């Protein structure tokens, strides 16, 4: 019975696609790549590296300023002209608030992250975050990166001396994890040391499963909502949440300020303490986001 229902579901999806999706860009007079069912223009992405796939994709319609394609089942536009790109990223940036990524903020804590918000919600949160990330604060984060790279250099030199292979993926993950933990949480770490708890956490956060979950939500948001697929594993989210709570409580109790990412999050939360707790909605029916611990957690998981 389940098999029959599954076949019927897939058949309906293909029929719906065949009746509307392939002709989306044609109806708008835009040159386009004819999409395949379900995979759109991205079937070969499974066979090529990201670099090679997008290089091949870009070479279509070399004389056009832009052309249409399908990001699996969703229409997308590939811009080739530098002047149009400049307008999108600068003059008209406020009109391009959706980057195509999706995660439901009601089910997934990471769904409150700036990457996954759209429209007015994205604008409001981006404005709050932009005010906090001044050049001086960003320079402080550079100090963390420099110290972490010193640890990475020691690790590479020791591996060479001992004639041991260097796992590039693991090394890069350790670097990224140390940067996140120190710059975001203000906790001194060294993931290149054996039995580092944060190292194993980083491997989970940057695992292929995370990428798969992110892709799943982007390709089929409705199915993602139905199955309640989260970006990160539950234990990863809970661990980060507990660390954040401990750091928040310590800083509040001891009036400790490091002028780092978490301090910026605390400042934003304090400015919202006197706001009306009832949800407020924009004219387009999207909610005005209150900035709470849940929002701060979502940004930290970035």
Automatic annotation (TrEMBL):
Name by which UniProt lists this protein: Cytochrome P450
Domain of life, source organism: Eukaryota
Pfam family, one: p450
UniProt-listed InterPro entries: Cyt_P450, Cyt_P450_sf, Insect_CytP450_Detox
UniProt key word Iron: yes
Cell compartments where the protein resides: Endoplasmic reticulum membrane; Microsome membrane
Transmembrane segments: 30-49
Membrane topology: Peripheral membrane protein
SUPFAM superfamilies from the UniProt entry: Cytochrome P450
The family this protein is said to belong to: Belongs to the cytochrome P450 family.
Cofactor(s) in the UniProt record: heme
């Amino acid at each position: 019975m389940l098999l029959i229902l599954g076949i019927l579901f897939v058949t309906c999806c293909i029929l719906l696609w065949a009746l509307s999706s392939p002709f989306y860009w044609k109806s708008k007079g835009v040159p386009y790549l004819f999409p395949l069912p379900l995979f759109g223009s991205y079937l070969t992405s499974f066979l090529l590296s990201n670099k090679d796939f997008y290089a091949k994709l870009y070479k279509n319609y070399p004389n056009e300023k832009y052309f249409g394609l399908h990001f699996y089942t969703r229409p997308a536009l590939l811009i080739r002209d530098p002047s149009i790109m400049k307008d999108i990223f600068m003059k008209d940036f406020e009109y391009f608030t959706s980057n195509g990524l999706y995660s439901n903020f009601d089910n997934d804590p990471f769904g409150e992250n700036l990457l996954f918000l759209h429209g007015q919600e994205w604008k409001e949160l981006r404005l709050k975050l932009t005010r906090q990330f001044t050049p001086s604060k960003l320079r402080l984060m550079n100090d963390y990166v420099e110290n972490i790279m010193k640890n990475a250099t020691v690790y590479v030199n020791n591996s060479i001396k001992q004639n041991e292979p260097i796992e590039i993926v693991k090394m890069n993950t350790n670097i990224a994890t140390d940067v996140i933990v120190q710059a975001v949480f203000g906790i001194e770490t060294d993931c290149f040391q054996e039995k580092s708890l944060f190292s194993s956490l980083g491997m989970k956060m940057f695992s292929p499963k995370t990428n798969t979950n992110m892709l799943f939500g982007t390709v089929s948001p409705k199915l993602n909502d139905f199955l309640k697929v989260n970006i990160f594993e539950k234990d990863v989210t809970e661990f980060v949440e507990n660390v954040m709570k401990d750091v928040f409580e310590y800083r509040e109790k001891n009036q400790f300020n490091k002028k780092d990412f978490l301090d910026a999050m605390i400042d934003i939360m304090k400015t919202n303490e006197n706001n009306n707790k009832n949800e407020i909605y924009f004219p387009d029916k999207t909610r005005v986001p209150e900035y709470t611990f849940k929002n701060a957690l979502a940004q930290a998981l970035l």
